[in-house]
Design brief:
With 265 residues, the chain is α/β, with parallel strands linked by helices. The protein has twelve helices and nine strands. β8, α10 and β9 form a beta-alpha-beta unit. α2 runs parallel beside α12. About 3% of the residues have low confidence.
Length: 265
């Protein structure tokens, strides 16, 4: 059983909603990422999305874009991101870790090489934001060859035909975009979410994770009525941005403890 499968089995057994926590690797500094990841897990996150810095992150809002550009300015490369993951595994991290990013850096790195190096670093899956299912065969093959899941995204605007196509190809889970737009914390979960999730649920038995716009405990509670887990990114970057230098890990842990209900506001 993969780490992702074990995570979702644990969530079912415990009757709770999971949290996938996103952090841009190398932000605000390369050496800050590992402590932040451990703090996210200590605070209650169930899995980690390591953001692969990219110069043209079209699906991301201003917060993640800013973090990505800063990480690139810090000289962070895909090799550095995999090194961070490998160091975390060597340091005892057992939670699922996913690479989340765009296809250009993977092509530049070399797909076969990236797949092998990601497996060696302990990566469990890849979320390619701009990879359409029609063009996914090479990446799917690389992931299968290296025991990783390729995570597809669906949006509220996805047609039933597109949902069927993704359901046939997907493994691990399906990432359901909770809003029509880019990433970024929002005040409320969309009223259209239940109908969207119902359409996806009717076509797959895979776990569903809702991301984009999630930032509050009440968001997690509502998503938990519909799906197995929620994903939070921009709000975590915001917590990092508002922390005093050197206090980023402590502040993101405190934030995650609140959003998961471990700590009352």
């Amino acid at each position: 059983m993969s780490r992702l499968s074990e995570m979702f089995a644990t969530l079912r057994a415990e009757g709770r909603t999971g949290l996938l926590a996103y952090v841009t690797a190398g932000y605000p500094r390369r050496d800050a990422t590992a402590p932040i990841v451990r703090a996210l897990l200590d605070g209650g996150a169930d899995a980690i999305e390591l953001g692969l810095p990219f110069s043209d992150p079209l699906a991301d809002g201003a917060t993640v874009q800013r973090a990505s550009f800063a990480a690139l300015g810090n000289g962070v490369t895909p090799s550095d991101v995999l090194a961070i993951a490998r160091d975390l595994r060597d340091g005892g991290v057992t939670a699922p870790m996913l690479i989340m990013g765009y296809m250009n850096p993977l092509y530049a790195y070399g797909l076969e090489r990236f797949g092998a190096d990601a497996r060696a670093a302990g990566i469990d899956g890849i979320i390619c934001v701009d990879l359409p299912p029609e063009e996914s065969a090479p990446v799917t093959a690389i992931c299968k060859a290296n025991g990783m899941d390729l995570i597809f995204l669906l949006a509220p605007t996805s047609t039933d035909e597109r949902i069927d196509q993704v359901a046939r190809l997907a493994s691990g889970f399906i990432y359901c975009v909770g809003v029509t737009g880019t990433t970024g914390a929002r005040a409320d979960v969309s009223d259209d979410l239940p109908a969207f999730i119902e359409r996806v649920r009717a076509r797959t038995d895979l776990p569903l994770v809702v991301g984009f716009g999630i930032s509050r405990p009440e968001h997690i509670a509502r998503i938990g009525q519909l799906c197995e887990a929620a994903a939070i990114g921009s709000a975590i970057i915001d917590a990092i941005d508002h922390a005093q230098p050197g206090m980023e890990a402590a502040d993101v842990r405190a934030y995650v403890e609140v959003v998961t209900g471990r700590q009352r506001v």
